[in-house]
Request: fold
Amino acid sequence: MSARRTFEVIAFDGDDTLWHNERGYRESRDRFRAILADADIALDDAALEAAINDVEMRNLAFYGYGVPSFVLSLIEAAIGLSDGGITGRHIDEIIELARRMITADVELFPGVLPTVRALSREYPLMLITKGDLLHQRSKLSRSGLERHFRFVEVVSHKTPEVYEAILVRHGIEPSRFLMVGNSMRSDVLPVVEVGGWAVHVPAALTWSHEHAHPSDAARHRFFERASLEGLAPFVRALAMRLKRTHVKVRGKRTPKTIPRRVSRRPIGRRRSP
Ligand SMILES: [Mg+2]
Reply:
């Protein structure tokens, strides 16, 4: 890796950072509600959300993230809510939701393509996404972005240990690693914890599971952007500024060593027009 670059690698999350994802899950939940109504099980939004989330959370440790896992949880929820009375036809309709989600068009967020294209000319890019391997690879290949990513990591979980293992495997210094993603819990906090930098780009729709509250110390190590538009000049400015401040960063000691101006002064446009 180049010794001159402030960032050796810039990594992106996929779902709800580069392309729409949660929207498909919401649509499937709506269809699931219609399937249940057809099976004479009527639930309001809150009760349905609670029932699905409950099963999903329980199943994450067994099936991980992704559409197959989600649909297994819907089937389990339907069986539970119908007290075992759900019919094969209704289960078949639920399974159809999985096929629909897996083959759905990949729709990029505004500004993604020019941003990824521009940054890929300056930095090796890495996609770090969690979920089903086949589905994630298929989305990347259908997104039109694949050629801009030098590395692709599909992982089961995004914990500090997982990020650390990726950095070690690729020989990347944590303080020279920047992660861009929509999830505070998966893309920002674990990266900050291992000594990296992050850009948080909140999505309009994010699964409630992905929300988290950063500590004051963590806030020194990530930046908020409204969208990926303008991210390339923002990263350029950030890299210059970090270079100038000679920030030496390692793990949890870093926040104290970083001058306030690094984290407090806005860089470039904070919001897209
Ligand atoms: Mg995401």
About this structure: DSSP finds twelve helices and six strands in the chain. The radius of gyration is 20 Å. Residues 45-63 form the longest helix (19 residues). Residues 13, 15-17, 181-183 surround magnesium ion (CB under 6 Å).
